[in-house]
Amino acid sequence: KKIVTVVGARPQFIKVAPVSRVLRKQYHEIIVNTGQHYDANMADVFFQQLDIPLPDYNLGVGSATHGKQTGQMLQMIESVLIDEKPEAVLVYGDTNSTLAGALAASKMHIPIIHVEAGLRSFNKKMPEEVNRVMTDHISTLLFAPTDTAVSNLSKEGIVNGVYQVGDVMYDAMIYNIELAQQRYCIEDFGLKSKQYYLSTIHRAENTDNRDLLKNILLALSNLNVDVILPLHPRTKVKMNEYGLGNILESSNIRVIEPVSYLEMILLEQQARGIITDSGGVQKEAYFLQVPCYTLRTETEWVETVNCGWNQLLHPDTPDLAHAILRECERPYIPNLFGDGRASEKIVSSIRTLWRTE
Ligand code: UD1
Ligand code: UDP
């Protein structure tokens, strides 16, 4: 049977890697890359490093307003589906590429498989929240990473086709962490183990507000220890637009280009703490038992907060640095995101789509 997988943004390249490896043993997979992320260090590097099969279709949609970007994807994915006639469409997460893939399939009555279903921030101002809610409500198979996600779906009346399988990002971590340690070395970044903070910031709520972005950068500069900041292109554009570059001059913050996945997980593992607004990075901090400070008002990954490894800090907190530097005890509660075999469970459940045949 043929399955069309739609991806387009950095976190989706990381999620597709473990699933595709298993999926291809049983199904004919066609990969469609919408091109939502297109810089080499936001896209190509992951295909090369994680051995992801090259996309069968590169739609090259690129950056635009939400409507234009999603609309162009929808139109182009529909053409692919007309040509390929797949038995199912597989989408990941909550980006505009996810929604476009799901919508295109839904209108053609092709069953949708949603990996990372049921996540909710309950903040409809986030574009991702709208993308996830819509995608879940038109999906046939919903692979939830946690019990919370299953319960969120159930509260919205979605109970059929829901499977709690764990998190494919944990699969990716288990598969790659030793490789990362073999291939890269923290000293190559000019850093010492556990003597620096790693930060990533890209969420629209933080980057599209000058005061918040300024407060975050000032907090990082007030930490008085090395901070390494692989800068998302969105944040780079906004920092230039707002004239905030001076905060970084002669500070402890080292801005670098976005890094590969293996470099990133090594930087995470060796950090004293991680300061982020990324969804994936919050989970990775927990996987690696590194304290995480999430600069947001809420998180979809409530388990990471409840177990003590992740702390939510409102990005407009006046003394963010102080809150970050406060030490606290964190007992490790294992397996909150499954056992590292989410991809296998997903692939073996896909056949339920055709169980009546
Ligand atoms: C998108 C997702 C977000 C996800 C993030 C992962 C949506 C609505 N948002 O946000 O959920 O967490 O990806 O990183 O789908 N840009 C480049 N080069 C690139 C990509 C982007 O320069 O390769 C710049 C452009 O100025 C672009 C901006 O970044 O306008 C934002 O890119 P976009 O894909 O629209 O959203 P992200 O903020 O990356
Ligand atoms: N990541 C990476 N290089 C970087 C920053 C992040 O490989 O420079 C990885 C990170 O380890 C995680 C994923 O990208 O696996 C998270 O993606 P992102 O933060 O862009 O999106 P989100 O998870 O917030 O949707």
Task: Report on this structure.
The chain is of the alpha/beta class. About 45% of the residues lie in helices and about 15% in strands. It has 15 helices and 13 strands. The protein has helices at about 10-25, 45-50, 65-85, 95-105, 125-135, 145-155, 170-185, 205, 210-220, 235-240, 260-270, 280-285, 300-305, 320-325, 340-350, and strands spanning about 1-5, 30-35, 55-60, 90, 110-115, 140-145, 160-165, 195-200, 225-230, 255, 275, 290-295, 310. The strands form 2 sheets. Strands 3-2-1-4-5-6-7 form a 7-stranded parallel β-sheet, sandwiched between helices. It has a 6-stranded parallel β-sheet with strand order 10-9-8-11-12-13. Helix 1 links the parallel strand 1 (about 1-5) and strand 2 (about 30-35). Bound molecules: uridine-diphosphate-N-acetylglucosamine and uridine-5'-diphosphate (UDP).
What distinguishing features does this structure have?
357 residues, six-stranded parallel beta sheet, 15% strand, 15 helices, binds uridine-5'-diphosphate, seven-stranded parallel beta sheet, 43% helix
Please work out how many helical segments DSSP would assign. 15
- End-to-end separation in angstroms reads 13 Å
The biggest beta sheet is recorded as: 7 strands, parallel
Order of helices and strands: EHEHEHEHEHEHEHEHHEHEHEHEHEHH
- Low-confidence parts lasting 5 or more residues at pLDDT below 50? none
Helix content: 40-55%
| Estimated share of beta-strand residues | 15-25%
Which whole number gives the mean pLDDT?
97
Rg, alpha carbons? 20 Å
Query: Structural class given helices, strands, pairing?
Result: alpha/beta
Bound molecules: uridine-diphosphate-N-acetylglucosamine, uridine-5'-diphosphate
Number of beta strands: 13
The coarse overall form would be globular
Strand order of the largest sheet: 3-2-1-4-5-6-7
